[in-house]
Write a structure and sequence with these properties.
CATH class of the largest domain: Alpha Beta
Distance between the termini: 33 Å
Shape: elongated
Structural class: alpha+beta
CATH topology of the largest domain: FAD/NAD(P)-binding domain
Radius of gyration: 24 Å
Number of domains: 2
């Protein structure tokens, strides 16, 4: 633990320096926001002080802190959890770094056209312009850091898709602290080392509760709770940067903003919408609340988090509660799983495909894990004994176990087998030959698209929407300032990362880690430029 910090997160042997590069245009102070909470009294007692207060220590918080520090600010970071990393640590570690900024701009604007989501053109433009620098920036944080391309566009038929490249940190196999392959832990390890090397103070297990404003409507600090349960007032002489992540573990926000039920989550359990509420408390405009990055996966009461589905083996289909296929299983982009199952049936008054059921045979069972987690057995048999996976000798018997009509499920499987034999999926156009799916490509999947589901015994796993993260929150501008409900910047309040992301309903993989870099840098540099309000 470094001596210069309270509850400073461990260094984990990371090394380095950084040369900060430019930022988006400066942060002019403008009209006051409507006051949504009382101003702080003139005689407030401040328990901690800094120039720039960063709330949240995931990727966006770390980059914001680094950028603000390198611009000359005294920085303090507050983190709710007992360890840093947030959703960056829990992610796959991908960072989008396009090859061409103009093609990237074209691709992203097309995603907004397709989804009819609200687009802020200035945000898309600055992201396209600055994201081409992402790999250079990350590699600058620790000597010897390397990144390698592992994937590309999530939607390959969209114009500009060729510009999209996803990078992961190449783990140092000699350094056991950084893992063995590109993961979120590897990426955050680079950030965390850079923060530690700079001596930036990080207070863990210290959640911020609300923002504090002065009579001029400026955000001047925050109230936080320490490990021993005491409330403290933290003064930010220049600015506050919100980097608290999303709200995927806040049931109320999900019920009000995201269609589908139940929906589970994969990431940090600290993501309960704290930043959304704090921003709303000072009059922030909230947007993109229906935007989520959500795969399909497994959940049970034994674990707080959900787990991703494993590779979809050829002799596997998905059926809804009526026992019918409802989608091209190979055509669902991994981050858009919710969109495949969120149809609400106005006659049955239910979500027909939540849960859906993954139906497969013995051939598929032997091909690898049905669920992606080290906690799952390699042969999938322990989970049968635990009751996670249902097993039967016939399709009709399997239908009884999952509660669907046996005749319907038998007919569904027979139709699938007939189509595979004939070489065409007549219902949904899933590729039958062992060829690469050209519209979407899951980098971790094989290219064997389809096979008969005919080798007993047969298996079924309930499949639920399982979120990577949410995108909604306070709307920021291209200087990373949080905007009020009239579109004006709230003085001295900035944000970065997935909290109020610029991504809408359709999301490009590795895009959240990328915007954490882009807007974290912008927020940190611009916040550090301000003059202190307390002269």
């Amino acid at each position: 633990m470094s001596a210069n910090s309270t509850n400073q997160i461990s260094r984990r042997s990371f090394v380095s320096t950084i040369a900060a590069t430019g930022v988006a245009a400066g942060a002019a102070m403008v009209a006051q926001p409507a006051q949504a909470q009382p101003a702080v009294a003139d005689n407030t007692t401040w328990d901690k002080e800094c120039d720039v207060l960063v709330i949240g220590y995931g990727g966006a918080g770390a980059v914001s802190a680094i950028a603000a520090h390198d611009a000359g600010a005294d920085v303090l970071v507050l983190e709710k959890q007992g360890i840093g990393g947030g959703n960056t640590m829990m992610s796959g570690g991908g960072v989008l770094c396009p090859t061409d900024k103009d093609q990237a701009y074209t691709y992203m604007t097309k995603l907004f056209d397709i989804s009819h989501s609200e687009m802020d053109e200035s945000l898309v433009r600055v992201f396209a312009d600055r994201s081409v620098e992402n790999v250079d920036f990350v590699c600058s944080l620790k000597p010897g850091t390397q990144m390698a391309v592992y994937g590309g566009a999530s939607y390959k038929s969209v114009e500009g898709a060729d510009s999209q490249q996803k990078y992961g940190v190449v783990a140092d196999t000699e350094d056991k602290t950084t893992g063995t392959g590109h993961t979120g832990a590897d990426l955050f390890a680079v950030y965390d080392y850079a923060v530690s090397e700079r001596g930036i103070q990080v207070m863990l297990s210290t959640p911020a509760k609300r923002l504090l404003t002065n009579a001029a409507g400026e955000v001047v600090g925050a109230v936080a709770t320490t490990q021993d349960g005491a409330d403290i007032n933290v003064k930010a002489r220049k600015a506050v940067i919100l980097t608290t992540g999303g709200y995927e573990y806040d049931e109320k926000m999900l019920q009000n903003h995201v269609k589908g039920y139940p929906i589970y989550a994969l990431g940090s359990t600290g993501n309960t919408g704290d930043g959304v509420r704090m921003a709303m408390g000072v009059g922030a405009e909230i947007w993109h609340m229906n935007g989520v990055s959500c795969a399909l996966g497994f959940h049970c009461d034994d674990y707080p988090n959900g787990f991703l589905n494993g590779v979809l083996q050829p002799s596997t289909i998905w059926v809804n509660k009526q026992g019918k296929r409802f989608v091209n299983e190979k055509g669902v982009e991994n981050h858009a799983g919710l969109l495949a199952v969120d149809a609400y049936n106005a006659q049955t008054l239910d979500y027909d495909a939540i849960p859906a059921y993954r139906i497969y045979d013995e051939t598929a069972r032997q091909m690898g894990k049905a669920v992606k987690t080290p906690l799952w057995s390699d042969d999938n048999l322990e989970e049968v004994d635990k009751g996670y996976v249902m097993k039967a000798d016939t399709i009709a018997e399997l239908a009884e176990k999952i509660g669907v009509d046996p005749d319907t499920l038998v007919a569904t499987v027979e139709k699938w087998n007939e189509d595979v034999a004939a070489g065409e999926d007549t219902l949904f156009g899933r590729p039958v030959e062992h060829v690469e799916n050209t519209q979407y490509k899951n980098e971790e999947s094989d290219n064997a698209s389809s096979a008969p589901l005919d080798t007993p015994p047969f298996y079924a796993i309930p499949t639920y929407p399982t979120m990577f993260n949410t995108q909604g929150g306070p709307h920021r501008n291209d200087a990373a300032q949080v905007l009020d409900v009239f579109g004006d910047p709230i003085p001295r309040l900035y944000s970065a990362g997935e909290l109020g992301s610029f991504w809408g309903l359709i999301y490009q993989g590795a895009g959240n880690n990328a915007e954490s870099v882009v807007f974290g840098r912008i927020a940190g540099e611009n916040a550090a430029k301000l003059e202190s309000w307390d002269k």
